[in-house]
């Protein structure tokens, strides 16, 4: 779970119930641990020595499962991004105990009190992680970024690398990062704007204590380095997607734009939050101007993220053009193999294609199987996310029964009306017969039960 943090552990009891409900793994089987410990002791072979590159990592301060390290250098008017990705496939053999367990899990699951990793910590937070405590095997991608932001994959190789520093979003300054870091991110954003892309990265939420002793959901400030760091992964994933599509192979991340009903709900949400959205302005144009530092706009960014028709995975097919609406281009996941199973196979395909070799049959077969496995992992992750948000909302509102709030109806379906509170990032159902989308309401909190992760409101009148 990446959306809610719980520094005071007020969600602890409820989180335990969520872990039980969704069968979140507590540990790895003994045979997987034994295989991982043996794999961690392997000596890299067939890796080119690139330990001289001035690579650094940039992640949250507490992260130890470091998928990526990077260096940037000028090449005429272009920038060369040297992007090292953890070489998980070096440690994991096809159909060994680690591999079979990873296929069962699909992805790392995140909750505010910890994660259930895709791979055992001896690998994901040790031998395979790009920590700055020694050489690590990696897959090194070289991405050439032109002045207009177009990114092209120039090289891919297995390499031995050494991170110079473990930098944190919270503390890293410009002097710690490559001089071209901000310029590369600016170029990627320029290309996004030209394509009409509009990625929405809402800030994360955390449970904070109010002066009266209660709790509230607040948005954490998003550091500029986070957005810039995301641009590096974006550029690499786009470049790999272009390569694989041209060679008629790959596993693509695909997503359609929000449909008309979803956009209508978002317009009502914007109205509830007091945010002006001109009728003639498209969602793409509107969302690019939202400011995550403003709590109301941050809440709307969160609503936009949840309003899409959902991203999924699809293998390359003749006669089709994989498309990801949020990035307005074909797109793959290749830069987080410690956390997502699919990335390991996309990386293997990219290495083969760049070497002029056929994609291994086991990789092609995996591309056919992975959509179902990753879809299941995405679904479980989404259910956990929703359960955690429901829990946090109930904890936040507990003890405030009887208080009145302004709200607006965002949509109505066979299950009744759904409303957005005007001053809190809460969307919930309410019994409001006759209410239509866009109807302003005055509501009273009837009950907030953290044990059931439920809140209940009653309508007490319309707001003119």
Keywords:
five-stranded mixed beta sheet; 12 helices; 464 residues; alpha+beta
Written account of the structure:
With 464 residues, this protein is of the alpha+beta class. Among the domains are: 4-246 and 380-397, no CATH class; 404-462, OB fold (Dihydrolipoamide Acetyltransferase, E2P) (Beta Barrel). Helix content is 35%, strand content 25%. The chain is built from twelve helices and 19 strands. The protein has helices spanning 12-21, 30-40, 88-91, 97-105, 121-127, 181-195, 224-246, 260-272, 283-287, 295-307, 341-354, 361-397; strands at 4-5, 48-49, 55-59, 68-75, 78-86, 109-111, 114-116, 136-145, 151-161, 163-168, 205-209, 215-219, 251-255, 311-315, 404-413, 416-421, 427-430, 440-449, 454-462. The strands form six sheets. A five-stranded mixed sheet has the order 2-9-8-5-4. A five-stranded antiparallel sheet has the order 17-16-15-18-19. Helix 2 runs parallel beside helix 5 (121-127), helix 6 crosses helix 7 (224-246) and helix 11 packs antiparallel against helix 12. The longest helix is centred in the last third of the chain and has 37 residues, at 361-397. The two termini are 38 Å apart. GO terms for molecular function: RNA binding; RNA nuclease activity. It comes from Sphingomonas leidyi. Residues 47-356 form the RNB domain. One of its GO terms (biological process) is mRNA catabolic process. This is Exoribonuclease R.
State Rg: 23 Å
Number of strands: 19
**Average predicted confidence as pLDDT:** 92
The strand order across the widest sheet is: 2-9-8-5-4
Helical proportion, percent range: 25-40%
Percent of residues in beta strands? 25-35%
Alpha-beta content class: alpha+beta
Spatial shape: globular
Helical region count? 12
Uncertain regions: pLDDT < 50 for 5+ in a row? none
How would a crystallographer describe the biggest sheet?
Answer: 5 strands, mixed
Distance between the termini: 38 Å
